[in-house]
């Protein structure tokens, strides 16, 4: 047993030794239980314990807790220790509380009172204990209780330096809990002037606080810029003996320097030329020092020195205005790329990524390409290799794309599984972005599938198809290349998909060659058919019907395949349906009709690569980089705005993707006849609206707008079903909102964060124009100011059989209850018409699904316990309780379904964030279906008062 | 800094300090996950790793691993030196510190950390000043111990 310092609680030391001597886990548990029983009886016993004993037992409990056991008593005794006038007892009491008490404990009130007493103590060590405890716990109650005193304490002339230091950081912690506690006004200037304090410890602590304050409110604190620059300048020019104990391994005040440099990064380069010059001198000096021989061989010296250097580089990158500094920074990092310290190589690669995005240093970064490629090959640490991949991606441009993509493909063959998917995305993006020659692009993507087929996501192979379809010059090459690739004995299923699609569209371009005659193409594809999953087979069946059109000579052979039992009687409904419909189509239609139906796909709408969106989503690091890039592209309009934009792009492309995937590029979910409409109307949007119709209108018949023929049965049901339709839109974004004999109104909407765009499509079903067409939208008075809609104008005439679209932009400002009213007025055959509808814009559209595990779900659930945060409804169902449809509705509602949290698999537990302009509202939900009773119980909790009730009302109507 | 963990080569947690509130269960999970991840890493690897949305900075001293979780914008190299300064303080106080010192005097290890880091930010970087504060605490402790002993024999 080593010597115990200080007063030594002997009993504690003996206990710890006992535990250490336990030979087995069981023995340990036994010893601990014995001790717990002993302590419990002491605490409950009649004999009052003196302070020392209490302290000893509390300390034992603490030790037991630290061993990983749960402690459910002793808290009161610890709180008692707080009021002891002995420092050591008080200190142990505080320690127990900071380690064991959670922010939402009932004990907080008691603790707060004790802390108050100590804060007012004349003894600074007591004040410090209290401050450290607040900083350790930092709960809301504490922010309320001490938000007033601590700012005062911090700027008071009577406060001792050590207390000031703790007070500054304590305030920082409370500020993070509740930003409102900062006083502002005259206090602001006093807090800024702490940067001038004599005591470097005080300045260090204060600069952490000021940095956080600045982050939230840069304008209020902008006076700190010149103070920070002069303080920094004094440190940088100081010799290492000047600052005495604040010099760390020959580096003057590294912590303070880094803090000051961080602080300055929240501002643009100073406008005052004097201040700006001084800052640049500092940065210059830091870069110079990096070139000086080290003053010590110790790693601590180099770490501290380089910590300051990296922070300086970070501010140089941030201002992005001094070309000379940027290039110097780049050269410095270039030296680090081959440093023997792994840590430095790691950081250099990471920081260079940012330099690569600056126009001033992009070229300088490119000089190090060989070194970076070399790190990819030789680094032994995967996290360093990952950084090298990031940097190659960032430094890639038209001049070096081929080489970089080539190297990345090479590396991919042996790359760690953990980074393959991201690499595949990066290669795919670079190949597309810098493809001068699209045959190269096709080769790269096919190589990707060959090398890492499992990691090639749908977005990647969708994209290659979109590009091939849109670019005539590459179609023949693509067909030839996939045909060759498919000849490999084992080829990845993704290759079969791409091959199937491309040959189905462009197989005719290579059919002239005997080696790839129609028959050969078909047999090659069909040889893979039985090894593939259902979705790939479905795709291949479509290829086959396309082949019937392209190559009439193999029609019978294909019909035989469609006819065979494994297809026509396939247990998979989708495959069976395709086989029978395609077979029928090939039997009954004339070649002309067949040729029209199976015409080559029209070009895809040009849009941002969906792959980029996936990559951004995959890694936060990347999105920061991209945001940085976009900020640059936008002329440095401010990183934050660009980051928001990046987020927005990401969401919208994801939405489109979701649509694409459900349509599997061919429109699987719609019957083949529809492809006629597809090619004639040729607007992706209309297809989507119609596509949705099929699922919503009970498969009755063709939608009337599309066929221009009215079905006697459906309009009636649709008109009477107006309100039902609007209800359905709570859980879906697209579909027919309203229909009668004259007009069909369809809706297709997209939402991201707190913004949304609703496309409303008005289709004239008659043979006469609709005139004086004027739709308008209004918000109920109760919700005014909570949601805003902006309606784009639309032409006043809709020609016979035509469709016009109108966009409504909306923003959620606060939670709102009612759907906006929509009034559509027009004249049909000189009779005025007036349709009063609702716009399908409900609060849940602004949900972002949030994934979390059981622990955090229950913790959050418990936190939202006030009555106004919860709403519950128990109601009888109006539709069949089928778990599939319940799931669809719940998913459509917009929250994330959390699996495996509720022990009853029938129940749904969900989480989501509602985005409003003013705040983000966290929402949790539980839905419990009860089949016997045909009832549901729905419980929703939300962080904002009243939101839960609105959501509960919305969702309960869906079942 | 969001939290600091000290654990042994055998994966035993020796000290934990959380500067951001988490439920106990989450703490246990995080701890387990990080200990496994870090113990699996080889000596020549970098001391930094990305983990969830945080950066992990760790360093091994003899049989003990010191591990800090910091935010994206925090400085990794300097975090290594916060760890080092803490080790120096422990070393100075215990006189070439070993794992056993921290096990038997865990409360002292906590007190020392509280002087160095408050609310997740470095509070006092001067070794002298921290040791002075700790020495003052010890002095109080001894006074109180003497006082207690005197009281016991009825002399106070």
From TrEMBL, chain A:
Q: Which domain of life is it from?
A: Eukaryota
Species lineage: Eukaryota, Metazoa, Ecdysozoa, Arthropoda, Crustacea
- What job does this protein perform? Adaptins are components of the adaptor complexes which link clathrin to receptors in coated vesicles. Clathrin-associated protein complexes are believed to interact with the cytoplasmic tails of membrane proteins, leading to their selection and concentration.
Q: Determine if Membrane is one of this entry's keywords.
A: yes
Family to which this protein belongs: Belongs to the adaptor complexes large subunit family.
Q: Which organism is it from?
A: Hyalella azteca
PANTHER family per the UniProt record, alphabetical: ADAPTIN, ALPHA/GAMMA/EPSILON
What is this protein's record name? AP-2 complex subunit alpha
List the SUPFAM superfamilies hit by this protein, alphabetically.
ARM repeat, Clathrin adaptor appendage domain, Subdomain of clathrin and coatomer appendage domain
- Summary of subunit composition and partner proteins: Adaptor protein complex 2 (AP-2) is a heterotetramer composed of two large adaptins (alpha-type and beta-type subunits), a medium adaptin (mu-type subunit AP50) and a small adaptin (sigma-type subunit AP17).
Major location category of this protein: membrane
Gene Ontology cellular component list: AP-2 adaptor complex
TrEMBL record, chain B:
Q: Which Gene3D superfamilies match?
A: 3.30.450.60
Q: Which family does it belong to?
A: Belongs to the adaptor complexes small subunit family.
Q: How does it sit in the membrane?
A: Peripheral membrane protein
Positions of the AP complex mu/sigma subunit domain: 1-139
List the GO terms this entry assigns under cellular component, sorted alphabetically: AP-1 adaptor complex; clathrin-coated pit
Q: Which InterPro entries match?
A: AP1_sigma (IPR044733), AP_complex_ssu (IPR016635), AP_mu_sigma_su (IPR022775), Clathrin_sm-chain_CS (IPR000804), Longin-like_dom_sf (IPR011012)
Gene designation per UniProt: LOC108676474
| Protein's cellular compartments | Cytoplasmic vesicle membrane; Golgi apparatus; Membrane, Clathrin-coated pit
Provide the alphabetized UniProt keywords.
Coated pit, Cytoplasmic vesicle, Golgi apparatus, Membrane, Protein transport, Transport
| Chain segments annotated as coiled-coil in the UniProt record | none
This chain belongs to the protein called AP complex subunit sigma
Query: Biological process (GO) annotations?
Result: intracellular protein transport
Pfam hit, one: Clat_adaptor_s
Q: What PROSITE patterns does the record point to?
A: CLAT_ADAPTOR_S
Q: Quick check: keyword Transit peptide in the entry?
A: no
Record keyword NAD present: no
Q: How does it assemble?
A: Adaptor protein complex 1 (AP-1) is a heterotetramer composed of two large adaptins (gamma-type subunit AP1G1 and beta-type subunit AP1B1), a medium adaptin (mu-type subunit AP1M1 or AP1M2) and a small adaptin (sigma-type subunit AP1S1 or AP1S2 or AP1S3).
> Any idea which GO molecular function terms this record carries?
clathrin adaptor activity
